[in-house]
Predict the structure.
Amino acid sequence: MSQLICLVIFLFLFRHTDYTGNDTIPYAVNILFRLDPLVLATITLAQKTFVTLLWPSFIIIGLTLFFGRCFCSWICPLGTLIDGSGYFIKSGKSNFSLPYLKYIILIIVLISSGFGVQLLGFVDPFSLLVRGMVFSIDPIINYLVSLVFDSVYKMGPAALSDYTEPIYEWLKIFVLPFKQSFFYLSFLSFFLLVFIFIMELFGKRFWCKNLCPLGGLLALISRISVFKRLPIRSCKNCELCETKCRMDAFDKDHKFEFEECNLCMDCLEFCPDQITSFKFAIQKNNTQINMNRRQMISAGLIGLALPVLSRTNAISKTADDDLIRPPGALDETLFLASCVRCGECMKVCINNALQPLFFEKSLEGMFTPKLVPRLGYCEFNCTLCTQVCPTGALSRLNVEQKHAFVIGKAYFDTNKCLVYAQKKSCIVCEEHCPTHDKAIGFNEIKTRDIQGNLLVLKQPYVKEELCIGCGICEHICPVQGSSAIRVVGKDNKVPSIQYKSGYE
Amino acid sequence: MTPPVFNITPELFGSPLIKSVIKPDILVAKGDDYTSMLTQVVESLGGMKAFVKKGDKVVVKPNIGWDRSVEQGANTHPVVVTQIAKLCLDAGASKVSVFDRTCNEERRCYNNSGIRPALKKIKDKRLRIEYIDDRKFVSVNIKNGKTLNEWSFYKDALKADCYINVPVAKHHSLSRLSIGLKNVMGVIGGRRGNIHFKIGAKLADLNTVIKPDLTIVDATRVIVRNGPQGGNLNDVKRFDTIVGCVDPVAADAYATTLFDLEPNQIKSTVEAYKRGLGQMDLTKCNIRHLKS
């Protein structure tokens, strides 16, 4: 029941991660990430500061201290969806269990974050879920639904579309997104998410018990929780609870592992003698954590190696000036440390202008947002992306701050610009430039057109000090192919090694 | 002896010949009560019933191009739009649609221009404020086009029984002014940036397809510099004027004089006049200033 409610809340918030006629979003649409203790742990290690936005995760930590890993079966929307997928994917009997993997992933992520490479976005369950939905599921659903209604509208008889159009309109208001969205990496995000469900073939909740690092973290916390399932081992002649447990929460000696139990409480129902119970009890852990020392040390070493690999990557030496980060973005190093690749900013972007990076900045930058002006520009008065960022990687801006926040600078390609190259009149860029003191001006010049006739032309130029890099000029430029006015991002390069005093 | 009475109806304006014979009425109201000014203007043109017949599907086409507030003057004043919509409803229209193809994101433009919230207050199912539906753009052969032969237009605008153009008058960096003829940009599809080369002639061509039955120019607060988008309140002046005319060219021509410019300085006006779309010579118009 609580599962369903949480899923509905999650889907509701997902749909409302959008412009609703208000400059501010009335709901905490990013709450899922702010509840996530793994995000808290990783970001705190990566930033070396406490991010106050993440305070709600203490609620989950508190809950876990009392009730154990109940989050996984009572709240987690991914868990709910995985449970729900059981209707379609029949799990085989699993002999194949790797519970230590989740701890290894956890350690790698935490250590590597502490030393400067934060890769949480690849393994955090909500990053995977929300991203998959934003980049693939949501656009797919909208595309298919629209396809049906559009076909009826375009090819069906008018009498039929008179019936279907009101339905479509209703769906658009309540269920579908306002506009079809388009994303790079739609394939990758889709398969990453679907893979989680495919793994169900190897056993129920395969992701949760073997891979989920959040589950691992909560498992560690739950070892000192006080609400526990009893008895502490399966009965010798029955073992029904052991064989049916979706979390495989029993070790080889039939001992019950508290930290693996997600409190789904199914065993209450199928215990023939009604022996099982869930009680508040101070109970010593009767099993070891599912990870040995060797595994732990290897994980730690991998975690240490990743940051070194990143620093010796040639990408760290090349300029990334075609990378335009969203408004409010922290300095690049801090930004990469803070961004959890949840995709919320790209979901909320009103012009579908924010897109995920692929390998432009190697693994470290994958799925982080960048502005692609030719697809969409940054709307001058809009601050939505800065409102939904759960970790403050995009710091919240009000409209005045946003108007002053520089994300890039525009420059003309005079070889392409109609005015410069073809002596045609066109100052569409100047018209659209939104800054209150226009960042694009023009001179009236006397020149000759291609036929040699004298004419007066308005020749545009960029006032660099006024340009904030919103990219509407690049977006709207009527030139074919790449725009004749382009925006470059700020130079984010920070010297990788900084000597405090230098030679003295 | 009674002077001959010309019963001026929109249908009469079909041919350039008739236009050159009769003098179009240009109604000008000044003041700060825009609602009553507007009602007066429409009354003096013969009342809304002269334009909207019972059961007509009416399109009211304001300028909602930009994500700008009412004071910034980039969009038609919401009071003007709502009053026209009300008059249309009162005249017995079966449907009144209000829409514009915006430059900024449409939801932001509709809301922040104040037009959507104002129209939402009128509880009448016949009144619709609609976002542009891309499926409704249809390709049109521009028969009288000189620079454009084909362009896509919004179906609802083409099919309207009565089309009321409600532009805002403002400065425009490329075409100098943006008034009624330029407002047609909001009902066309395609890459509108391509219109900007030879914009005057192209606008005139587009206006041979969309012929408004009535043009109401909103010159209440006007961007005098850095148009068409403005943003800086120092660039906005109060003209407190509303102009109404059945002749789209004459409406533009008169509104041009508010900016201390001559009608022949605006290329789209000149080109439209040449194509016989209306009168630009103000001496041949009947300019009537309404007393408020």
